[in-house]
């Protein structure tokens, strides 16, 4: 397949981090984050523009300072199941934590969405960073960093094993013989690992794409290693072309070192395009958005990487406070980066907050022609394989789909039509073969009779 830009739409309802006031916009219903009609309309808007997927973020711990969308939103797989029956091609990717779920439950719910949608499901694998989540799951303490990532890898491997419970032809459904299932093509997993014990089999068959597509987002060494190990799509953030290229090369090299084909790892940073008729008008719009933000809300959100630490009691114009190892069991990489930059540059608390929330011009700001050219530059320069476009105001999203994408389509950067009806097909990813079928075929070629179990994950 010709390499073309992949497109995701991140549906944020009434506004996520750094976007606390979207709910006030006349085009956004105040209950958009719990209104399934809003999600269906946005998904159809994205599908009409030939997007590969819609992406639903999630977390399970909130405070009064959480962004509006986080305070009141639908559970991802319930939401996506409703969207599935109202769309036909677009992929449906939901965030589900491995820290506070068990693999059998995850595998069954994701496989159900995959069948409901005809093979369009994707799973954004997260190792929960919000430490407060523990108290919602009968735990006194959050899992430490190593345990979270160990659970994440083992969870994915167990789910993949469970998704192989049935071979593709396991259900003859022969009315003349009364044979509904071929028991030789149903397989137990019998997994015993460090974190989980799962017998199996899973009570649901494979979808047209074999199994859901695995996505992952993580910038720490542990996160990048996990993405290189299991990620077929990588969600990330790239503030500059150079930063995007560095991440892209690193994750691809890590994947290759693990014996994977790096071309089958799709890197998709999140972006928020700011468009106007001219570049100067777009920059002015960007400045007005920045100046219009409530610093108190920004300061409260700034505490999230540190376990929602309250920074409001500190002197904003004093040097950034000494925080010790605060954040080590939350979003550790982000917390450590903030502390390091503040110390190296001798920043005050106010300067640190501004540096990490509004210091640099957004890379995809300008006229439609300028934004299209910038996207093409990043794509051809191997800083990304696709984009995850944040969607709130419908008319703003429409300007991107109606004015930027046609330019990219004319240049051959974006597809002119869907190539497939599955998420894997449209992302150019292969269907994973059932491991038990592969083992059976290998045994037959070697002349070994009888049933041969597949290798365990």
Distance between the termini: 30 Å
Order of helices and strands: EHEHHEHEHEEEHEHEEHHHHEHEHHH
Q: Which residue ranges are poorly predicted, with pLDDT under 50 across at least 5 consecutive positions?
A: none
**Counting H and I runs of at least 4 residues, what is the number of helices?**
15
What's the CATH class label of the largest domain? Alpha Beta
The assigned CATH architecture of the largest domain is Alpha-Beta Barrel
Widest β-sheet, arrangement of strands: 1-2-3-4-7-8-9-12
CATH superfamily of the largest domain: Luciferase-like domain
Give me the secondary-structure topology.
Layout: E1 6-11, H1 36-48, E2 53-56, H2 68-71, H3 76-84, E3 91-97, H4 103-116, E4 121-126, H5 145-162, E5 191-192, E6 197-198, E7 213-216, H6 221-230, E8 233-236, H7 241-257, E9 266-271, E10 274-275, H8 279-291, H9 295-302, H10 332-344, H11 349-358, E11 365-366, H12 368-380, E12 386-391, H13 394-410, H14 423-427, H15 435-445
Helix pairs in contact: 3-4, 4-5, 5-6, 6-7, 12-13
In short:
This protein is an alpha/beta fold.
Give a written overview of the molecule.
The chain is an alpha/beta fold. The protein folds into two domains: 6-273 and 364-427, TIM Barrel (Alpha-Beta Barrel); 293-358, no CATH class. The protein is 38% helix and 11% strand. It has 15 helices and twelve strands. It has helices spanning 36-48, 68-71, 76-84, 103-116, 145-162, 221-230, 241-257, 279-291, 295-302, 332-344, 349-358, 368-380, 394-410, 423-427, 435-445; strands at residues 6-11, 53-56, 91-97, 121-126, 191-192, 197-198, 213-216, 233-236, 266-271, 274-275, 365-366, 386-391. Strands 1-2-3-4-7-8-9-12 form an eight-stranded parallel β-barrel, surrounded by five helices. It has a two-stranded antiparallel ribbon with strand order 5-6.
């Amino acid at each position: 397949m010709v390499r073309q830009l992949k497109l995701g739409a991140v549906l944020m309802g009434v506004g996520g981090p750094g976007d606390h006031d979207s709910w006030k916009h006349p085009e956004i219903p105040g209950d958009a984050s719990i209104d399934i009609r809003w999600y269906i309309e946005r998904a159809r808007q994205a599908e009409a523009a030939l997007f590969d997927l819609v992406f639903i973020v999630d977390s399970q711990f909130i405070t009064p300072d959480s962004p509006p969308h986080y305070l009141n939103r639908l559970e991802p797989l319930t939401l996506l199941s409703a969207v599935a029956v109202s769309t036909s091609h677009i992929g449906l990717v939901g965030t589900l934590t491995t820290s506070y779920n068990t693999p059998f439950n995850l595998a069954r719910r994701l496989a159900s969405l995959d069948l409901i949608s005809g093979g369009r499901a994707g799973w954004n694998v997260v190792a929960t960073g919000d430490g407060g989540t523990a108290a919602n799951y009968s735990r006194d303490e959050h899992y430490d960093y190593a345990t979270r990532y160990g659970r994440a890898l083992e969870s994915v491997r167990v789910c993949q094993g469970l998704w192989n419970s049935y071979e593709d032809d396991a259900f003859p459904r022969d009315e003349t013989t009364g044979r509904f299932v071929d028991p030789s093509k149903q397989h137990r997993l019998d997994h015993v690992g460090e974190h989980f014990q799962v017998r199996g089999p899973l009570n649901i068959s494979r979808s047209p794409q074999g199994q859901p597509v695995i996505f992952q987002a993580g910038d720490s060494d542990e996160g990048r290693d996990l993405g290189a190990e299991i990620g077929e799509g990588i969600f990330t953030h790239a503030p500059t072309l150079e930063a995007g290229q560095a991440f892209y090369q690193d994750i691809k090299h890590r994947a290759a070192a693990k014996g994977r084909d790096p071309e089958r790892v799709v890197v998709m940073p999140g972006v928020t395009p700011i468009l106007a008729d001219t570049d100067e008008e777009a920059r002015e719009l960007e400045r007005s958005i920045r100046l219009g933000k409530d610093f108190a809300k920004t300061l409260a959100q700034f505490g999230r990487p540190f376990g929602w630490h309250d920074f409001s009691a500190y002197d904003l114009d004093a040097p950034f406070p000494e925080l010790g190892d605060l954040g080590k069991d939350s979003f550790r990489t982000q917390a450590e980066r903030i502390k390091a930059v503040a110390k190296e540059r001798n920043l005050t608390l106010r300067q640190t907050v501004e540096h990490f929330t509004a210091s640099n011009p957004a890379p995809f700001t300008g006229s439609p022609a300028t934004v299209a050219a910038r996207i093409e530059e990043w794509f051809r320069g191997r800083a990304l394989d696709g984009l995850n476009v944040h969607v709130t105001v419908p008319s703003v999203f429409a300007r991107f789909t109606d004015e930027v994408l046609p330019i990219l389509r004319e240049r051959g950067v974006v597809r002119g039509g869907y190539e497939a009806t599955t998420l894997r097909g449209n992302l150019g990813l292969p269907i994973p073969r059932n491991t038990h079928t592969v083992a059976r075929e290998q045994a037959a070629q070697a002349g070994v009779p009888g049933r041969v179990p597949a290798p365990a994950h």
